[in-house]
Amino acid sequence: MSLRTAAVLNAAKAGRSMSMSTTSTAAKEQPWRAFWPPKAENYSEQQIQDMPWLGWKFDPSKAEEKPWREWVLKNQSGIARRGSTTHLTEF
C-alpha cells in the first residue's frame, strides 16, 4: 500500500475528507491547453480549406453534425481496401 493510499484511508477512518486537489498540484498542470483546441484565426484561409478541422467548432444547435466523417473519406479516397475492386479500374 502506498503512502498516499494509507493517508487517504486514515483520513477516511478519522472522518476527514481529503481531496486530490489539496494533495497534488501536478495533476492540474495541462500545458497542452495552450495549443488545444486550435484557433482558426491562427491559420490562413487556404489552410482551413485544406484542413477544415482546424476551424471547426461544436455547435449545440447542430449536435448531430459529424463533419469528420467527410474529412476522413476525402483523405482516404485513394486508398484501396482489401476485397475492393475499385483499384482494378486504374489499369
Strand/helix succession: HHHH
Strand content: under 5%
Number of strands: 0
Mean pLDDT comes to 76
Per DSSP, the total helix count is 4
Structural class: mainly alpha
Task: Kindly give the count of domains.
Answer: 2
What is the end-to-end distance? Answer: 65 Å
Shape by Cα distribution = elongated
Oligomer: single chain
Round the Cα radius of gyration to an integer and report it: 25 Å
**Largest sheet report:** none
Unreliable residue runs: none
Please tag this protein with its features.
91 residues, 2 domains, 0% strand, 32% helix
Structure, briefly:
By secondary structure, the protein is an all-alpha fold. The chain is built from 4 helices and no strands.
What can you see in these coordinates?
With 91 residues, this protein is an all-alpha fold. The chain folds into two domains: 1-29, no CATH class; 37-91, no CATH class. It contains four helices and no strands. It has helices at residues 3-13, 20-23, 45-50, 68-75. It is elongated.
Task: Give the topology.
Elements: H1 3-13, H2 20-23, H3 45-50, H4 68-75
